[in-house]
Amino acid sequence: MSLSEEMIESIHAHDLEAADAYFDLALQEDSLEDLYYLADALYELGFTNYLKDLAEYLLNVYGENDELKLVLAEIHFENNEEDLAFDYLLEIDSESEAYPQSLLLQADIYQANQLVEVAENKLLEAFDLLGAHPVLEFALAEFYFSQGRFLESIHYYDKLLEKDIELFSGTNIYFRLAMAQSSIGEFEPAISLYQMSLEVEDHLDIHFQLAITYFQNEDLESALKHFNKVKEKDPSYSSVYPYLANIYLTWKDLEEAKEMIDQGLHYDQVNAELFSLAALIYLQLGESDQANDYFERALELEPLHVSLRIQYIDLLMDQQNFDQVIHLIEEAASLQVIDPLMTWAEARAYEELEDYDKAREAYEEVYPALKESLEFNKDYLNFLRDEGQWDLIQSILSHMLKMYPDDSDLHLFKERLSD
């Protein structure tokens, strides 16, 4: 048995001290063939520190080898040493057999640094060199999928399936293709593909995505069946509970929706969607104080969530809790979360608190964004009437009547101005 083989045996036996010793001896005494065996074995086992030292040793002692340069480039990339990775990749000549693989690694590095167009060009150059090779078809499919370019990704996933490749590098091709089809709204083909992917591997994530696609396709009975299948196999799979709650909300079954939320919160106390749905359910049940508590918890988890904050603001406006409305909007501003609907609510809240200067400032600030909104302008016109700003009233009212000539409230407002 060679020293390289002794080292691998020591690693399998978890005797790293012996592995260290055999590694040093192997570099001194083993044949080149043994050392290449060791490099392959270390690569498979993921022992990159040993592999890096071995590859550098082989390059220094035995001279140029582009496969070793690829290995070192990959190790440096994984260690976030991209400049060192490129040093090795750029040494690989375009005539080398390793050049297409070097292009793939360059594409990974460029994509990791958000240089998407350059990454795509490297992949396409490799494709031009090697043609319809499964490695490149998979790389292009994954690249386009990651960029949300689903039609292009579908093309290359289909190419793999045409070659009867259902699994590639641990990736279920039917599953990927189903997600791509679902993402472009092709729900029926996606459902068939999810079912085929389950024949390749029965995985909860596939059941979950299949259930989501049924949900998006408005087949709620089938969605419920598959969401429940996920829940039964793994009750801690907390992502199912918001969907289950939404199904029961659609069916006006508030108690069952509440039960789904309670079950979800038992497993997951950091899911803002669960808390926000709980708030909406308790609101419909007429328990507004409990709804407030859940909105607060949701915003603690996701303070930048605009629609969630607006929902809570609307509730507080209904409760006439205008000071808390102002607090939520000021908090949002401190987080640089700005939305016209919040500024409109701010204007109304200051108006109710009789702070008319701040109300005016808020109305004037948001007017350019909401000047086409009928409901906003009704509020603004009423405020301007109380302020006695007749010229501005006439201008806004004339504009709104052109946009909404049949609105009875606007005509009534105009008549009252004339009285």
Automatic annotation (TrEMBL):
The UniProt entry, under InterPro entries, shows: TPR-like_helical_dom_sf (IPR011990), TPR_rpt (IPR019734)
Matches recorded under Pfam families: TPR_12, TPR_15, TPR_8
Superkingdom of the source?
A: Bacteria
Q: Does the keyword Ligase apply?
A: no
Q: Where are the TPR repeats?
A: 204-237, 272-305
- Which terms are listed as keywords in the entry? TPR repeat
Instruction: Give the matching Gene3D superfamilies.
Output: Tetratricopeptide repeat domain
The UniProt entry, under PROSITE patterns, shows: TPR, TPR_REGION
Q: What is this protein called?
A: Tetratricopeptide repeat protein
What is the native source organism of this protein? Atopococcus tabaci
